[in-house]
Amino acid sequence: xxxxxxxxxxxxxxxxxxxxxxxxxxxxxxxxxxxxxxxxxxxxxxxxxxxxxxxxxxxxxxxxxxxxxxxxxxxxxxxxxxxxxxxxxxxxxxxxxxxxxxxxxxxxxxxxxxxxxxxxxxxxxxxxxxxxxxxxxxxxxxxxxxxxxxxxxxxxxxxxxxxxxxxxxxxxxxxxxxxxxxxxxxxxxxxxxxx
Length: 195
Known about the structure:
By secondary structure, the chain is mainly β. It is built from one helix and eight strands; from the N terminus they run αββββββββ. The protein is globular.
C-alpha cells in the first residue's frame, strides 16, 4: 500500500515535470504551535504542552497552468514539547521532549487568483531525533498538510506567506496501539525564483 502510493506520486510528479517548462525553486521558514493527538482516548496518559517549533526548507514548484501547480519541498522541523505525567507511579513528573523530523510534502497548489492560493497533499516524514524516546511514539510515516497562502511577484522574485496545518503519522511506518501524532498549526514564509 505504502509503496504503491509512493510510486503513484513519483510517477505523477515525473510525468508533469517532463511535460512542462515552468519551474521555480524556493527557500522557506516557519513557526508552528504543536500538540499531540491520538485517534483513541487514553485515560491516565500524559498531556503535552507546546514549547517551541521552527522549520527551514527548500522547495521545487512545477507550474502546470495559471491555476494548478505541484510543490515538492524538503523541510527540517524542530519541535520542543513538555510532557506532563499524571501517573500514580511518577506524579507530577515533567519531561522536555525534543523532536526533529525531515518532512517531504508533495502538495497540489490551486491559485484562486494572482495573489491567493491553497495547497494540500501528503507529507512523507522521517524522525531524525526524539529524546527521550520513551515518551513519544516514532513520528516517521505519512501525514497530510493543508495551507492557504498569499503571494506577491516582484519582477522575477515571488514572496509568499501562508498559514498551514499538518498532521504527522496518520499512516505510521512503525505503529503502536495508541499512536501519538504531531499536529502542527503554524505560519510559513519564503521566496521563490524561476529556473
